[in-house]
Specification:
Elements lengths: L1 E6 L2 E4 L4 E9 L4 E9 L6 E7 L4 E3 L7 E6 L4 E6 L8 E11 L2 E6 L3 E6 L1
Length: 119
Amino acid sequence: QVQLVESGGGLVQAGGSLRLSCAASGSIFSIRAMGWYRQAPGKQRELVAGISSGGSTDYADFVKGRFTISRDNAKNTLYLQMNSLKTEDTAVYFCNALGVVAGGLYDYWGQGTQVTVSS
């Protein structure tokens, strides 16, 4: 089992910045990749950014150049630095970990943290 706890959300004006954190605990060794997703009211959850165990990163087009995903393996923590925030970035942001369980892959999720960007 992997437990994920997000923090760092809040209210910020458009153009501002926030940094989200996701602390992982439990069977850390089983994690193969991690990522951030978001879900706005009335919309489906969507991938924002991902990072592999080797450090390769991938971003959704709508955040490229503005958001940066990183991980501190010593602290078992995933980060999402969000700059130049837009009102359309308002959503609940979820941390995700893809772990190996009994030979298969399993998605772990945090509880989510609210990010609200005001105009």
